[in-house]
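for the recovery benchmark. tokens below, seq after
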């Protein structure tokens, strides 16, 4: 961050003070391969697959995000606590 830039929490917009409680959230979600390939999928013609992709109505970015998504945010202390609480509730 540039010294003259003012930084704010990406979630609530609260101003982050220099030297204060500031946190960096870095998250990535990556498609996983379980070692199994659907036998029917490998027999389909490439044109069929392209038609299915085009008919899905998804943008190129949405399709890419189904395979890989990353997020980087700066957080205040309160939002950091909320994110951690949310993540702990999932398990």
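predicted aa per position
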């Amino acid at each position: 961050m540039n010294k003259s830039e003012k930084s704010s929490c990406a979630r609530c917009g609260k101003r982050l003070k220099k030297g204060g409680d500031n946190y960096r959230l870095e998250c990535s979600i990556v498609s996983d391969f379980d070692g199994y390939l659907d036998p029917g999928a490998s027999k389909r013609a490439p044109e069929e697959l392209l038609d299915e992709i085009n008919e899905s109505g998804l943008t190129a970015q949405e399709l890419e995000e189904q395979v890989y998504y990353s997020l980087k945010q700066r957080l205040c202390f309160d939002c950091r606590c909320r994110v951690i609480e949310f993540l702990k509730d999932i398990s």
